[in-house]
Structures are given as structure tokens and as C-alpha cells.
């Protein structure tokens, strides 16, 4: 019997591991999706169309913003509270929740549109009672006239995004400017073309990276908190895994990227290496179908919230990975 | 393999056009767009027809053209973004279909009155987006076109086959379409070997839908950025007058469905008729109620546009713009014409009957403010009939954010821009 000495073994080892990795395609991510339910109240499914979503994972609650009214759903998707009819809150455009459970509302007053819309952050308790307001200040010249339509909490700071201007700013809790991102510059969109380009979907992952889609580029982008483009992915087309008109984007707990494709009414799943894994939804009237989905948000226990049109409400799916490093088996 | 290469080249070209070019022209580019943008080749879909990605024809268009924010190609504001007191956000010359969603109520003498959103525009049917059949008119006013069939493709040729050749002729086939013909700029003009699309992919001669047939396309040019607040600068679309080589006038084109509304043989407000020296002089001198000190050099108002008496697209392009330059402010001559779009927006507006300005009350402003339930000067018992459930801010959005100071303290309805009876 032939024997190998230690030096030979060390030489062979890398090749062995390479062979091992290549021989087991099961290490590629597999994802299983299942329709669970729609967000509901005691009258049944709420027939929402294209609403804004925010998932508060610390308290396992979901906030839905529709025509200025915020409804709160518990971990089983049942409505437990609503607010938004207080004029002092202005017209609510987005919602975020801080680590203490207080609510932050992106509020607008359109009374004087010629001067530019007036916006501020309304701080509320969990019942939506106004506790105070925050004005954004100290914007540098590059962000003159900045007017956000999306808002996120990121590491104790506020991240405000203008999807049409393709910019974002970070402020402290008092609204003082800390940092700005010019996504248009990062993905090479000249100033004059931004209104015709615009960001469709936007979210922040747990590392603070910013994910967004630009439908007319057929691309999804990931930008680091430092403002560096980490990756872009996607190809135009109508086959599974291809981008037609993409919108919402999020990352699940397994590191999979979820991208909404409006044209084919699906949510596509890409693994952490941006390889297409599977898609689900498809246009139709069955409970698990989707009709022109738009936003996607990740909740606890693998839950996935998807907004859509035609009064189909917010559909909740479960998503589980298996056969993958770190994934559930 | 060869097919795959060609596909790749086409897709790359499309990506370049979308990502690097002037994106206002992207996707349609004056003609038929990428098939996959509207039709799904293999994905399962319940119902629908023609493999459309939307539940119906208009829903397919709105897949891209509806959105919550102002964007150049958005012509409909997402319903969930419009709560009470919030107006649609787009300010295109054609208007925002979101106004169809804005139903206003007001109480007068104990009775609640409703101004149904349906009267604010063309009631396109887009089931996915909640746009339904016109609940008031069973057929097009002044015509027979069935409201139950009204869709984007009732007016626009979704495949954009109509093209303008270098000869000026509008044809359905012929030289390839290289770009949109809607916008100004030499790249949007035909050459000896290449055509451009007709204005806004409008339906041309022979285009038939649900019992009506168009006889030609109207002429116009627009700036490539046309969706903007008019608080500072107006957007001027240069409407033209052309009748030869596949063209019709704007009034004739609208009359395809609204025949009895056309002034030819009908006792209605003139269209496709010269303004004449008196009306043109009124237009040019009218600044606001009580102020007739204007001049023709600065007279244009997008609240009352007119058709320039020319079918020369180069001449029209020189008049189209959005930056407030002096060339864009020129008022009409006596041979320029009044048309349907002089008073109405093509899609929808914040005013009944899709008018550009309100004529439901003699005043547009009261005591230096827009009409509104919150106008402190509107205290009479009839005030609800006058502001009709809107706030001052809401009326202002209907006027594309114009500062109220552009008008008189008590501004009479804008019919007076031409008629100067105030």
C-alpha cells in the first residue's frame, strides 16, 4: 500500500477541498416558499393596493401606511391598532421605529407647494400620540432642496431617501446632517436624467448596507454605509431570474436577496452569491398568487410581506432555506 | 446562436439607451417597445389577453406609468400615496389620472354634495389600479365610443407604428423609426432613411378601436422634461395645425370620439378656428383680472394654450420648452387656433370636466387666496358651493402650484384670457 508523507498530504489537501466543494451542488442554496395569509382585521383580509410597509422585528409587528393612515398588525397578521387622523402629524409618507419602540413618521405639509413641500419627522409613542417633531437641518449644497419620500432607522441614525433624486442623507436623532449619499453619482446617472431613472425599491440590511433597484437599468445595487458600490446584479429579460420592471428589494436572514419583478408578478430569490435560486407568486387569483407586486419586507421566523395591486392586500409568505451553509435543514 | 447574439446586441442597445442616453425617450423610443415590457411570453397568468403582463390593457401601461412620486413618465399617482387633502403629484401637460380618485364632498344647507372623481378626466379602465368604467357617461360625450372600452390604447397606438417621414408624411410602415418625434432636438427629426414616431404614439389614420376610426395624427412638439411644477416655469407644449399627409387638427382628432363637440356644424365653442385679431389681442394683453397691460412677447399661459398655425415641426420645436425662456412665452397671432386642449387636459385635471382651470364659480381666487374651505374670506353660506370641498392648497395643485400672486386678488375664471370680460 502506497503511503504519502506529510509534505505530499499538504500539497494534496487544497485540491481535495476544491474537489469536495465542486462535487456537492447541494451546497447551493435551496429555498422553499409557502403562502401563509394576508394581513387582516376582524372583517377579513384588508383589500390594500400598493401600500408602504415597515416591519418592526424587535416587537414582531408590521406597520402599513395607506392614504395617510397607519395600521399596526401583530405577529399573526391581525390588525391591532391604527392612527393617522391627527392633522398635527401632517401627511405621513413613511414610518420607522426606533429601538425603544417609539415611532418616527415622515410628515409633510403641502400647503405651500411653491416654496417646496415642508417636511419634518414626527416623533410618536406606540399609540401614534405626537411627542415632538424634528426638523432636518445643516444640509450641504449638494443636497440643497433635498426632499425625502422614504425613511429608515439605521444604527440609531435616520436615513432619509429621495428615490426620484437618487440621494439619501443620514442625520442624528435631532435631524442634524451627518452624511449624504448620491446614488445617482454612484450608479452614473446624470442629474438631468434622474427623474426619468429613479429608484424603485429601497431597503437597508442588518449591516447597514443600502439595497436599491433601478428598473430602467434592470439592475439591483448594494451600497455600503461608506458609500461604496459593493455589487450590482441583474439582467434584463422575462425568463425566471431576469429583470423586467423590478421594484422592492430586501435581504432575508439567510443572506438571500429578494427582488420583486412587477411584470411577471413574482418575487425572485437570489443567494448571497447573487445566483438565481427560485421565484414565487405569479399573476393569478389563487391565494399564493401576486398581482403586480411592489414592495417586499422581511419579518421574523422567515416571514415575508409582499404588497400588490388590485385590492389583493398584503400577502405573507414563509421562506425557508435548506441545504445551505448556515441555512435551516 | 446567431439569434442569441442578436438578442444580446438588441438588449445591450436598449440598456445603453435606457441607462446612458436621454432616458425620457427610453423604452418606447417613438415606436414599438421591447416586447417583454408588455407581454409575458411564458409566465403563467390568469385571465387577461394578448399575453399582457397587466390584467388589462391600461393596467399594463400603468405598470410603469403609475407611481407615488413625480417622475417624468408617471401619468398616474399611486392611490395609497393620496390621503385626504393630498393631490396627485404629477404635473404633466396631459394631467394625472390620479385626479379620477379624488372625490370631493361638501355640505350645503344640510345636504352633502359629492363631486365624483370620475368627472375629472378620461375614465380609463385599469382594474389592477382601481380605475373603473365611467359611472356617469355610458359613451363618449358627443359620440358613441363605449365608456366600457376606454383604455390607453383607445387614443395611443401601443405599438407605435405611426411614423413621420422626412417628407412630412405620416405613415404606418416605411422607414424605420429611430426615435420619438414628440420632443425637440435634431435627433428627434426624421432623415432621408429614418423616421420618427408621431407625437405621443397617438393613433393615426386607419387606427380602429371599438367602432371608431382615426383619420390622422395631430402635430405637436414637447420638451423632453415635461413633468414639473409650474410654480416658477411653465411647460409649453407647442401644438400645431396640420391637415396634410396623414395629419388632422387637434379638434378633428378629439372629434373621432367626441364628434358632436366639434364646432363644425354644431353650436358649441369653436375649435380648429382662428383666434382672430380681437381674441389674439385679448390673449396677449391679458395678465389677470383688471390688468390688460401684457404684451405678445410674454403672453403665453399653459392654462390656456393655443395651436400655432403651423405644421412645421422645426418651428413648433422652437416654441416647446420648460425653462421659462423668452421664446416660450410668445402669445398667439390672429391665425393661431383655439382647440380642445386650450381648455381641457388630455388625461385628467383637478377640475371638473378635465378643464385646465375652474369655471364652477366666477372667481378662481378670493381675497388674494385660492378658493378653499380654509380661505378666511369665504364665509358666506354659499362658500361650500364655491370651494367644493377643497382646501386652498388643493386648488393650488390643480393650477400646477402657481403662486396665487400670478392672479388678481379676485381673479375671474380664465375664460377671460381670451375673452377679457373682467
Indicate the topology.
The complex is a heterodimer of chains A (329) and B (422).
Chain A: H1 6-23, E1 30-38, E2 40-41, E3 44-45, E4 52-56, E5 61-66, E6 69-73, E7 79-83, E8 91-97, E9 103-109, E10 118-124, E11 130-134, E12 150-154, E13 157-162, E14 167-171, E15 177-182, H2 183-186, E16 202-204, E17 210-214, E18 219-223, E19 229-233, E20 246-251, E21 257-261, E22 266-270, E23 276-281, E24 296-298, E25 303-306, E26 315-322
Antiparallel strand pairs in A: 1-26, 2-3, 4-5, 5-6, 6-7, 8-9, 9-10, 10-11, 12-13, 13-14, 14-15, 16-17, 17-18, 18-19, 20-21, 21-22, 22-23, 24-25, 25-26
Chain B: H1 2-19, H2 57-65, E1 66-67, E2 76-77, E3 104-108, E4 111-115, E5 163-164, E6 170-171, E7 177-179, E8 195-197, E9 208-209, E10 212-213, E11 220-221, E12 238-240, H3 250-254, E13 273-274, H4 276-285, E14 307-308, H5 313-319, E15 337-338, E16 365-366, E17 369-370, H6 383-387, H7 392-398, H8 416-419
Parallel strand pairs in B: 1-2, 7-8, 12-14
Antiparallel strand pairs in B: 3-4, 5-6, 5-8, 9-10, 11-12, 13-15, 16-17
